[in-house]
Design a protein that fits this description.
Blueprint lengths: L1 E14 L2 E6 L2 E7 L6 H13 L3 E2 L5 E3 L1 H4 L2 E6 L21 H19 L4 E2 L6 E16 L5
Parallel strand pairs: 3-6, 6-7
Antiparallel strand pairs: 1-2, 1-3, 1-8, 4-5
EC number: 3.1.1.96, 3.1.1.-
Keywords: Cytoplasm, Hydrolase, RNA-binding, tRNA-binding
Protein name: D-aminoacyl-tRNA deacylase
């Protein structure tokens, strides 16, 4: 599982010209799921994101977590995070999980993050053509791969 976590002042996602979800201060998460991912990856990644200290404290030091800051979260499915660009000019997405595996893990991640944060998590729609907007705060952008957790 790969997540691109961006600290945002605001973020939103529209589908078919209609606003699906919007958040204020918090994180926008692009989430890529591969065939080998499991519930263990979901739980580890959710905890990591909820507790990662990327928000400023009263001294302007990144010392507060998403939980501490009271920020919101927007989760967007993003299979292209698993693109292989080693050969040729057309990326291969063979590592990206098929919907029968990816959708349940995507839903499980949203549910787990909501539990870890103690609040509702906004999201896009799996497989939809989404238009994502954000104001990156910092900018702070962090890439987390559950395969690198040890």
């Amino acid at each position: 599982m790969i997540a691109v976590v961006q600290r945002v002042s605001e973020s939103s996602v529209a589908i078919g010209g209609e606003l699906k979800s919007a958040i204020g201060q918090g994180v926008m998460i692009l989430l890529g799921i591969e065939e080998a991912d499991s519930q263990e990856d979901v739980e580890w990644l959710s905890r990591k994101i909820a507790n990662m200290r990327i928000f400023d404290d009263e001294n302007g030091v990144m010392n507060k977590s998403l939980i501490d800051s009271g920020g919101e979260a927007l989760v967007i499915s993003q299979f292209t995070l698993h693109a292989s660009t080693k050969k040729g000019n057309r990326p291969s997405y063979i590592k990206a999980a098929k919907p029968d595996i990816a959708i349940p893990l995507y839903e499980a991640f949203k549910t787990q993050l909501a539990i870890d944060l103690g609040k509702e998590v906004a999201s896009g729609e799996f497989g939809a053509d989404m238009k994502v907007s954000l104001i990156n705060d910092g900018p702070v952008t962090i890439i987390i791969d559950t395969k690198d957790k040890k």
